[in-house]
Amino acid sequence: MSPGAAFTPEEVERCWREALALWDVHVELSPPEPHQPFHPGEGAADEPLAYIDLARRQVFVHFDLLVRMGARDSLTAVLAHEIGHHVRFPHTLGWDAELRVLEQRLIPGLGQSLTNLFFDLQVNEFVGRTHAEALCEVYRGFLRTPHTRKDKTADKGGPSPLFSFYLALYEELWRREPGDLVPRNQLEPLEQAYPGFRAQARMFVQTFYALPDARLQFLYFCAAFIRFIDVPSDVRFFIPLGGDVSIPDEGDLDAAVQSGGRWEDALAEARAQGWLDESHDTKEADPLDSIRRATEHLPGNGGGKLRRALVARYYRRLVDQYILKLPSSPSKPEPYLRTLPEAWEYGDDPSTIDWTLTVIAQGPLAAVAPLRRELEADLPPPSDLGVPALELYLDTSGSMPKPEQELNAMTLAAQVLAASALRKGATVRGIVYSAGDPLVSPWMYDEETARDFFLQYIGGGTWFPVEEMERMASERPDALRVIISDSDFLANMREKDSLKRLARAMSQSRRVVAFLALPDEGPARQVLAPLLSSPRFRLATVQWMSDFGRAAAALADALLEK
Questions:
Q1: Is the whole model's pTM more than 0.85, yes or no?
Q2: Closest Cα partner for 423 from 454, 457, 444, 446?
């Protein structure tokens, strides 16, 4: 549908100019276009009234819906609302991500983020200074217009208590009579179910907009709206001018997970004011728990992919703590090989002129057209640098936590070893095992691929795939092989012929290292005694799981340095 079916192009252009003038800013946004209906299906979102596509920097308006709602004269207010999200509230998705992470600390398991409601209260206060009635028409029209929604039962008894409180805030903010936005037949039931309902709305408006800091505003907002949430995981709502703030991306949420320290002063103030009590979880959450909470309510499969990417970033930061070093000045071989000749130009170093080549090549023009050649070192190819290919066997049995939910020390050790090898120019192959068939990667050449592979988890019992190691050793005898496990590995080696097969694999490998978490090294030396005398075998142990990362970095230095 073209805008002309509901609005003339001239009307749209005029309203757009008026909306821009309201905020008095220059924005890199294209004038509004008609909203194209979403494809039907289970994963389809509710049809919005208006929103901004940040990728295209394009504003879209559901012109037909605006007319059906009886709010045709509200187009300027709707456009000003969308511009307000872009220029000020939230302005950046990084701020939205920070709020999403915090609200999951205060309201764990929240089914739908409340940040859009929070930003709408900020935007509408500004737009409502001149267009309050136009915004009221949007909310009134929304309540009286049937909508096509996935949740057909959401508002059978009228708007939810949470949405009713939200509407009551606008009645108080814009000095409307009770019942102007909140359905009149709901006023008494709401007061009975939530004593002081109207008084709380009045107090909220007086307090919220007077707070000097956006962090305090959000904490006060959450403390007030928690009252109207019975089961956080069941929270689902669809409101006009909602759903028009984009979901933060991976980088925004990753930064937000690390932002907890910036909230301590605001949280202390909220507790002192009595907004938050002991029932609210204000302790800084574990990063992996924060990631889980911030992503589990996202629609479709996006949450799972996003969670995996955020977990990978978290493990990378841990890896860098152990192996990231300041670059030193490496000792380079003396340069002596001449490069290809180039024309010497005024300003170039005269010592680079190759006069012999110039005279031979240029003849009589040698004096006016000299040729220059640089000197460079004869560096050996990467394969000759002495860095072996690395094969990592990672135990992911049920005795270890799933790395996406809790820090897995063995997974971290594998990540440290893989990153150390890859940063030195080696290739890495991973074997993630538990019981049954192991997961085997191809040879990997970059950290991101290796990091993602070693986040996989099987669970269950433990069986070291010694048959797989024996086969791979025959295929690639020059590789260094490291086994990351605990006492379960020793139990496996006590099985018939297991130690013999490990010995055969060791004899065809550059070296085999058993990197084990053991409170006492004695049993390992007893079980592995036939191998310990071989220069191709090494036993490395840690007493505590928390030492795995640091020990892995030391092991990498010992095995991979020249």
A1: no
A2: 446
